[in-house]
Specification:
6-stranded mixed sheet, 13 helices, 17 strands, binds adenosine-5'-diphosphate, binds magnesium ion
Amino acid sequence: IICNKEDVIKAIETHNVKFIRLQFTDIQGVVKDVEIPVTQIEKALSSGIYFDGSSIEGFVRIDESDMTLKPDVRTFAILPWSKDKGGVARIICDIEMPDGRHFEADPRYVLKKVMKEAEDMGFSLNVGPELEFFLFEKVDGKATTTPHDYGRYFEFAPTDLAEDIRRDIVLTLTDLNFDIEASHHEVAFGQHEIDFKYGDALTTADNVMTFKYVTRTIAKLYGLHATFMPKPIAVENGSGMHVNLSLSKGDENAFYDPNAEMAISETTRQFIAGVLKHIKAISCISNPLVNSYKRLIPGYEAPVYITWSGANRSSLIRIPTARGKSTRVELRNPDPSCNPYLTFAAILAAGLDGIKNKMDPGKIMDYNVFELTKEERVERGIDTLPSTISESADYLEKDELLKNTLGVHVHDNILRLARAEWDAYRTQVHDWEIQRYLNTI
Ligand code: ADP
Ligand code: MG
Ligand code: MG
Ligand code: MG
Ligand code: MG
């Protein structure tokens, strides 16, 4: 394990590393990367590397464009697929302003701030995300939406054609210090899931970013296209990123209480209540694309209604059966197109709000909510998630807690990007409209 500058230098020598990729994530959750030759590493580690922040989406601040990448040495890792070409390593970076202060719109910094707040309350957050993705065929080097295989949930060879690819992704992630728990074919044709062990929120957000580009890179080596697009095929399940959450207090899981109803603590209930309260605004961050909302419809195992339950998978929040150390809540609306730093920050802030204000999550809905009639839902006061990015932007705009959590700069930029995304979409005339209206109207 790499802990300091000396460890990095030693690892570089041992593994004959020639290049280092300095990485960070923009507001939209896209990895940015600048490569330096190993000759620059001393300088990068001691004073950082300058870059033009005004060219990065959501960072724009012309007056303060000279920003610095500060490598976080604990994220040093050798990229396994580059070994025989002369080692390439990556380090994830924090972002500083010219005067040495943290850049307020650096997603890692936004998350660290909320983690600090949790720490001040005696808690630390554990996060275990389940990323789903599709493998599609390529034709003439271009991605299609033709699934690579016609396997279904938990299927295996010969129907599942991706065993070797998943295994290769797993081995690569293991080389990158991931602790893999399982990998399997998912419900849709060409769809897969690989699960890794939960960790603290920052490490896990870093891991989500690494997971996505490892998966894309390995798929490419097999001549395939991997995508984390939430809903690539209308009539199939979309790809989600369920987020499993628990709070630790010292060595204890603060969500576990063997003597309480359902063996979950009062803290768990309050945390859930906070997340439910803010979920419409959180959606703008955890489901950031026009396409995200095409996943959140009835019939495809994705949540629509704002409810919580025990093991029942029709709810937005589910409490998996495991107790003791594994006591956790599973939030099911996020999808893998989100920025994981900002998503975890928003969820944690909402949960802490619930704890601070001793909120009550209301009645548990331990039945399939989708089977209720509209009247029954109204009667029981069951609300729904926003159905478009435009709607969730309106909720995020009004959410003071999340505005404070994200900082004004990120809050403004997320709203701007969400609305630009919606405008770009609603000002197009889509194929569906032509098919439906051209000949009949
Ligand atoms: P599912 O049954 O929903 O498919 P998975 O087994 O695919 O769940 O994923 C469960 C995730 O929850 C894993 O990433 C696992 O590491 C994580 N997890 C387990 N215990 C905890 C915990 N106490 N806190 C947070 N996450 C946890
Ligand atoms: Mg799973
Ligand atoms: Mg699983
Ligand atoms: Mg799944
Ligand atoms: Mg799950």
